[in-house]
Amino acid sequence: MLALMGEYWGSAPVAFWLCAAALALLAVVGIWLSIIDILTHRLPNRIIFPSYPAAAVLLIAAALAVQDWNRLVSLAGGAAALWVFYFLLRLIYPAGMGFGDVKLAGLLGLYLGFAGWPNLLWGTFAAFLLGGLWGVLLIVSRRGTAKSAIPFGPFMIVGAFLVLALG
After folding, report:
1. Distance between CA 158 and CA 162 in Å, rounded?
2. Residues 101-133: pLDDT tens digits?
3. What is the 3-state composition of the chain as percent helix, strand, coil, each rounded to the nearest 5?
4. pLDDT tens digits, one per residue of 50-80
5. What ranges do the domains of the chain cover?
6. How far apart, in Å, are the Cα atoms of 107 and each of 59, 63, 143?
7. What's 12's DSSP letter?
8. Closest Cα partner for 157 from 139, 130, 136?
């Protein structure tokens, strides 16, 4: 998304600032949710639910500012696809995925979808890679076992940020 913002800087400053505001929102919400998830293993609705319309308005306005109709489709499709994917994981193995992660997936799907379908896949992959590496580190350091619960929200958020910054 940062590369996309670079394109907008010269040709569409309104879209640039809308994307910057959307990323700032994600940064604030992401840090807040990560801290809460690490401390409580919860992702509160009172934070996630208001973030959906705020992010959607900013990203939709950015797409409209440059008249990029494909971004409108990909941000909505990204949110839906990532929500459904995490929901299916939750259905298959409820002990392994909380419903807060499912709700967070939809929000992150807005951003990753806006940035493009490949970013949606890479962001999801990065979250599972980082979470898996953390789990292995806990097992190797004997601070946890294969059955230890870890908060997955921070890995989802960091994975999305990495892809939005580098993708």
Report:
1. 6
2. 999 999 999 999 999 999 999 999 999 999 999
3. 85, 0, 15
4. 999 999 999 999 999 999 999 999 999 999 9
5. 2-166
6. 12, 17, 31
7. -
8. 130
